[in-house]
Specification:
Layout (H helix, E strand, L loop, with lengths): L2 H8 L2 H4 L2 E7 L11 E3 L5 E6 L3 H7 L2 H13 L5 E4 L6 E3 L7 E2 L12 E3 L1 H8 L5 E5 L6 H14 L3 E6 L19 H19 L5 E6 L6 H6 L3 H4 L2 E8 L5 H5 L1 H9 L2 H9 L4 E6 L14 H15 L3 E8 L17 H13 L4 E4 L7 E7 L5 E8 L10 E7 L5 E8 L14 E2 L3 E2 L6 E2 L5 E4 L5 E6 L2 E6 L1
Parallel strand pairs: 1-17, 3-4, 3-13, 4-8, 5-7, 8-9, 9-10, 10-11, 11-12, 12-13
Antiparallel strand pairs: 2-14, 6-7, 14-15, 15-16, 16-24, 17-23, 18-19, 18-22, 18-24, 20-21
Bound molecules: 2-acetamido-2-deoxy-beta-D-glucopyranose (3 copies).
């Protein structure tokens, strides 16, 4: 970006009303400037695959491994995977089947009502070069079957990260045998705590359970932690909340809404950290039930994906797993067999911004449409700054916001821009998003296009970057 051009534009009355300005001071050293800094995980943006669909994603969808490896190319670490979801509580382990999964659906867009899986499911998961969390059944109340499945995972998966015992138990009532009596958070917690101990003891392992896995605030991690004790905690590796903010695309991508949504997990972060455990968003995406066609595949949802992941990391939510549902049938899926979705590009920008960072801090208060974050390297120096203009843009002249960064002790910076024609743009309707001029090919997820860097000049320790409505820019130090 050229300062001269911005300065002259703001002098023109006609254009001036389309350009406004915000200023942020970038601390030159981690831990300074009165900001809250949090440690960054090596792969804070991870993926969750619906339990029954995981083998198909891994064996039948060409784009899967390339999409995941594109992120690994940025960070040096394969993203984590969680296999789970509603169908984990419909699944039973069959030690005698050679199949990954066995189920019947009348329509390929359906999820199965019941299924079995065999040891080869764990063998397939073991082939993934990153770490994997496996979601197992609690709803059916068949703990011996769940222990057999867990033992198979432990035996075969050198890359096993954690095991879940049940998914979203708030929906068990009237559906799952374990909830046949009174069913509420305290009944569920008592059962969950017992299962953590029984399964942990059977495996002879501590720090193995990803606990919680619920959506509503009444089924919070805080509630679960308060119901437990040291015996239970030793088996828990981390606590996990699920989250689907929903709403329209303009409300979803609004930075003030994102900041307030992430704040709703502050108490759970504090409760988990208070007993020495991290909090994850173990299953999340834009809109529940597979997504919404008028929200989830849009570029606005890509911007949400980016800002939401970074805001979570900047609030000490250690890892965020974006859920991928039935192949070709869930609007929020980042890719399918034939086409890619713009949310993948938003995720790519978030991964690029946080890659190899040691700390992250939010520079904005979360009260308006403009977001600014900084990552810091292991040397404590600034690595990158992310600027996000969440003003909703769909047509006409695209307004811009001038982000001025002060306190810079470098002479120039380079930047990559995350953009698309409008907040409504969809890759599968001919309007692919790009990051630094590059996009990702349909069906293969191969990176495509010329890599484009913008030069940002620094003068007197400050630099101004123009960010269009519904756009973001990652500035590299
Ligand atoms: C892969 O797709 C084929 C054809 O649709 C199907 O028969 C097979 O069961 C799928 N494999 C998995 C692991 O889902
Ligand atoms: C801890 O909680 C477990 C599970 O509820 C229970 O069985 C055990 O008695 C408790 N231990 C203590 C020391 O309170
Ligand atoms: C953030 O979470 C990590 C991982 O659970 C924890 O070690 C740390 O104490 C937490 N808080 C801060 C301020 O870093």
């Amino acid at each position: 970006m050229c300062n001269f051009k911005l300065a002259s534009l703001s002098g023109l009355a006609l254009v001036a009303n389309l350009v406004s300005a915000v200023t942020y001071s970038v601390p030159s050293e981690v831990g300074t400037g009165g900001l809250e800094y949090y440690p960054l995980d090596a792969a804070p943006l991870s993926l969750s695959f619906e339990f029954f669909a995981f083998p198909s994603y891994m064996t039948n969808v060409t784009a899967t491994m390339r999409c995941l490896e594109n992120w690994k190319d940025l960070t040096g670490v394969w993203p984590h995977i969680r296999s789970g979801g509603t169908t984990q509580d419909r699944a039973l382990f069959d030690p005698d089947t050679d199949a990954y999964v066995v189920y019947y659906v009348a329509d390929p867009a359906d999820a199965p009502a019941s299924l079995t899986f065999g040891p080869n499911y764990m063998e397939l998961a073991s082939e993934y070069p990153g770490e994997v969390t496996i979601g197992l059944n609690r709803g059916k109340n068949q703990i011996d079957n769940t222990i057999a499945a867990a033992q198979s995972a432990v035996d075969q998966m050198g890359n096993l990260y954690a095991i879940e015992l049940g998914n979203e138990p708030e929906y068990y009532s009237g559906v799952q045998p374990i909830a046949s009596g009174t069913w509420n958070p305290s009944v569920d917690s008592a059962i969950q705590n017992n299962w953590d101990i029984i399964v942990g003891e059977a495996l002879g392992m501590t720090n193995i359970i990803q606990a919680g896995n619920s959506l509503p605030s009444s089924w919070s991690s805080t509630q679960l932690i308060e119901s437990g004790n040291e015996t239970v905690y030793q088996y828990v590796k981390e606590y996990s909340r699920h989250n689907y903010p929903g709403g329209s695309v303009s409300s979803l991508m609004s930075h003030a809404n994102i900041a307030s949504n992430i704040h709703s997990f502050d108490e759970d972060v504090a409760s988990a950290n208070g007993i020495g455990k991290p909090l994850f968003l173990g299953e999340t995406n834009s809109v529940s039930g597979g997504g919404a066609t008028d929200v989830s595949p849009l570029f606005g949802a890509a911007l949400w994906t980016m800002d939401y992941t970074v805001r979570a990391a900047a609030s000490n939510i250690t890892r965020t797993y974006f859920h991928q549902g039935t192949i070709g049938a869930a609007p929020y899926n980042m890719w399918g067999r034939y086409s890619g979705g713009n949310p993948y590009v938003g995720a790519y920008a978030a991964v690029a911004f946080m890659a190899e960072g040691s700390y992250v801090a939010a520079l904005d208060s979360g009260s308006d449409n403009y977001a600014v974050y900084a990552t810091y390297g292991s040397d404590g120096k600034p690595l990158r700054v992310l600027l996000y203009n969440s003003d909703y843009y769909t047509s006409g002249t695209r307004p811009t916001e001038s982000f001025t960064l002060t306190g810079l002790d470098v002479s120039s910076l380079q930047a990559k821009r995350l953009t698309a024609p409008t907040a409504s743009s969809r890759q599968d309707r001919g309007e692919p998003a790009t990051y630094g001029g590059q996009g990702f090919d349909d069906g293969t997820c191969v990176i495509d296009g010329d890599e484009t860097w913008e030069l940002v000049t620094v003068s007197g320790g400050s630099a101004t970057v123009s960010v269009g409505a519904s756009e973001a820019v990652v500035v590299h130090f």
